[in-house]
TrEMBL record:
<keyword id="KW-0560">Oxidoreductase</keyword>
<dbReference type="InterPro" id="IPR006076">
    <property type="entry name" value="FAD-dep_OxRdtase"/>
</dbReference>
<dbReference type="GO" id="GO:0005886">
    <property type="term" value="C:plasma membrane"/>
</dbReference>
<dbReference type="GO" id="GO:0008718">
    <property type="term" value="F:D-amino-acid dehydrogenase activity"/>
</dbReference>
<dbReference type="Pfam" id="PF01266">
    <property type="entry name" value="DAO"/>
</dbReference>
<protein>
    <submittedName>
        <fullName>FAD-binding oxidoreductase</fullName>
    </submittedName>
</protein>
<dbReference type="InterPro" id="IPR036188">
    <property type="entry name" value="FAD/NAD-bd_sf"/>
</dbReference>
<dbReference type="GO" id="GO:0005737">
    <property type="term" value="C:cytoplasm"/>
</dbReference>
<dbReference type="GO" id="GO:0055130">
    <property type="term" value="P:D-alanine catabolic process"/>
</dbReference>
<feature type="domain" description="FAD dependent oxidoreductase">
    <location>
        <begin position="19"/>
        <end position="412"/>
    </location>
</feature>
<comment type="similarity">
    <text>Belongs to the DadA oxidoreductase family.</text>
</comment>
């Protein structure tokens, strides 16, 4: 099972109506609900399982501008601003700390790649920079392996995935939102060609707008409503250790391992390349869109064929709204971790930091990451179904950008001026003839 999340007590009554229904209780959905509630919008958040039960509690916990696609930078800058005031805003500790993030670089090619990235993002005036020598040593206390240089962003930070979305959900409730857990949304209702309500397992909620923030489930939900959303799932494995004395403070990516210190004194550890792409029916449906990513990353992301292909094949058709849906049959996606990959990551960490040689593995888990062909999220109204806003496809980068993404989704569903230009995140970029572009170095 995944890591234990902080509890959120579900509201008991199902409202008959709302202005907006948010589907999905991860970091994006809870952030959208919180923002909407603070605006005075009547909002209901429906989560089929528990708040942050899937990838929002299973990620690395990084909150970073560093290394992002330039199309995401305005949104992550806004998100960092929100994170910096998040603990006060929600009246709880989300675990956010500004500790910096480091990429340790071992070759001239690595250095050149990130020099090119720094040049590309220069207009955004980030504090990211290359470091070396004594400064790099100070960022890696106790390291016995040297590196040529590092890319470091001091204003980046970390938060606790098991605490953050639950804290935001509880704050949304206090602001007036209704939060329903164990309440799957089976589908949408429409009137005159636009969204007019949702059908949940507990009944109907009339509404004017819907934010779909269901992570790895979003493609399936869209498919049920004849909306083409190019999205696949990637499985990523993670472990956490018990407390480790004398370890580094800044989160870091090394050639073989990535780590992040936790508030409990342990570390979240993963292989620097720890993802597996399962071959699914949608792998063939979206082969053309994902071909550029496959060409660029085939050495880094092994492909696997197994029982998940047949599981998802059985989900091919929608279920009538008056019957129990697949969202009720599978409340939480809980894939098995790749324990061999995790063990290799911890061993690699111990070769750099001897203090980890005796670290105890407290837990291991895996999560399913929702990915798009260009590794940039979709945060977009759906042109063919007015009233629906999709916020998904964060491609492993969603936790840090979550508060900003939730705010943008709230802007779009209410018609408010968007906090950033939403054009790069439009769904129609996959159907309007735009080139599918993956930025070099990302």
């Amino acid at each position: 099972m995944g890591p234990a999340t902080d509890p959120v007590i579900s509201d008991s009554a199902l409202p008959s109506s709302a202005d907006v229904v948010v589907i999905g209780g991860g970091i994006i959905g809870t952030s959208a609900a919180f923002d909407l509630a603070r605006r005075g919008v009547r909002v209901v958040l429906c989560e089929k399982g528990q708040i942050a039960g899937e990838q929002s509690s299973r990620n690395w916990g990084w909150v970073r501008k560093q290394g992002r696609d330039s199309r995401e930078l305005p949104l992550i800058v806004e998100s960092l601003r929100l994170w910096q005031g998040m603990n006060e805003a929600v009246g709880a500790d989300t675990g956010f700390r500004t500790t910096g993030i480091l990429y340790a670089l071992s070759s001239d090619a690595d250095i050149a790649r990130w020099e090119a990235w720094l040049e590309r993002v220069r207009p955004y005036q980030l504090d990211s920079r290359l470091v070396s020598g004594d400064e790099l040593t100070r960022l890696m206390p106790g390291a016995t392996r040297g590196f040529k240089a590092g890319l470091f962003t001091a204003s980046d930070g970390r938060a606790e995935p098991q605490q953050a979305a639950p804290a935001i959900a509880r704050a949304a409730q206090r602001a007036g939102a209704t939060v329903l857990t164990g309440c799957a949304v089976r589908g949408l209702e429409t009137t005159g060609g636009r969204v007019s309500g949702v059908v949940t397992e507990r009944g109907h909620i009339a509404c004017n707008g819907v934010v779909l923030a269901t992570g790895a489930w979003s493609r399936l939900f869209c498919k049920d409503h004849d909306i083409r959303l190019p999205q696949l799932r990637v499985r990523s494995s993670v472990l956490r250790t018990g407390p480790v004395e004398g370890g580094p403070e800044a989160a870091a990516w090394l050639p073989d391992v990535a780590y992040r210190k936790r508030l409990d004194g342990g570390y979240t550890v993963a292989g620097a390349v720890a993802s597996v792409a399962d071959i699914l029916p949608d792998s063939f449906v979206f082969f053309r869109e994902f071909l550029p990513a496959l060409r660029q990353n085939w050495r880094k992301m092994p492909l696997r064929f197994g029982r998940r292909f047949f599981e998802e094949l059985s989900w091919a058709g929608p279920t009538p709204l008056d019957q129990a849906s697949r969202y009720e049959r599978v409340r939480v996606l809980d894939p098995a971790p790749q324990q061999q990959v995790n063990a290799g990551a911890l061993a690699a960490l111990a070769t750099v930091y001897p203090v980890f040689a005796k670290a105890k593995v407290a837990q291991q888990w895996a999560g399913l990451i929702d990915v798009t062909p260009d590794v940039v999220p979709v945060i977009s109204p759906v042109e063919r179904l007015p009233g629906l806003v999709v916020a998904t496809g964060f491609s492993g980068h969603g936790f840090g950008i979550g508060p900003g993404a939730g705010r943008l989704a709230a802007d779009l569903v209410t018609g408010a001026p968007p906090v950033v230009d939403p054009h790069p995140f439009r769904l129609t970029r996959f159907s309007d003839g735009s080139e599918i572009r993956i930025e070099a170095g990302i």
